């Protein structure tokens, strides 16, 4: 059950507007309203729907869940040393939220496509768990033509990756063109798709994720964000 009543300064700070001490200054400046009137008490316990900051409703006070069409070249790390990072593509306000926003189903720097984000803790654990077995669909371009033999190998559930003790689960491979395929997997091993193709003598030239679980990119453009409804489990 959602905790509807929290301190006024806590709601505002958690949504990324400012630190608790800075929020107190905003309250003194009458930038924070409760039911349309200035509130002078940072400790007031209140529902978030009653609060406005600079005449705007609080930004997603109950948590954020969204997708990003990740461009090639961006790391999923939070370390600025690995810049550019995907978090640089998000609004500054979102990067100040508490709990912080994390990405789910990370993509490597050379892979583009659907990346999920949330600051809802239980959702991070649920969608990241291998037990969930969520469907992931990728578009893959290879250096050499993909044969029907590769389709059979991937679907057999016997393909063993280097350094692994358990074979990959069956994967569906659809040949779109001789060097262009779609692959559907239900696992999330380290660089799994690239390693699967490498195991059968093919090099991945480009890799793009279009689907993750029940979510699809659709016509979302590169670098764009789409807010999603929180799933019910």
Major sheet: size, sense and barrel closure? 9 strands, mixed
- The name of the CATH superfamily of the largest domain reads Alpha-L RNA-binding motif
Q: Which class best fits the helix and strand makeup?
A: alpha+beta
Q: How many individual domains?
A: 3
Query: Any idea of the CATH topology of the largest domain?
Result: Alpha-Beta Plaits
Description:
The chain has 233 residues and is of the alpha+beta class. The protein folds into three domains: 52 residues, Structural Genomics Hypothetical 15.5 Kd Protein In mrcA-pckA Intergenic Region, Chain A; 76 residues, Pseudouridine synthase I, catalytic domain, N-terminal subdomain (Alpha-Beta Plaits); 78 residues, 2-Layer Sandwich (Alpha-Beta Plaits). It is 18% helix and 27% strand. Strands 7, 8, 9, 10, 11, 12, 13, 14 and 15 form a nine-stranded mixed beta sheet that branches. Strands 3-2-5-6 form a four-stranded antiparallel beta sheet. It has a two-stranded antiparallel ribbon with strand order 1-4. Strand 5 and strand 6 form a beta hairpin. The radius of gyration is 22 Å and the shape is elongated.
Which features characterize this protein?
alpha+beta, 233 residues, Alpha-Beta Plaits, 15 strands, 27% strand, 18% helix, 3 domains, elongated, Structural Genomics Hypothetical 15.5 Kd Protein In mrcA-pckA Intergenic Region, Chain A, 9-stranded mixed beta sheet, 4-stranded antiparallel beta sheet
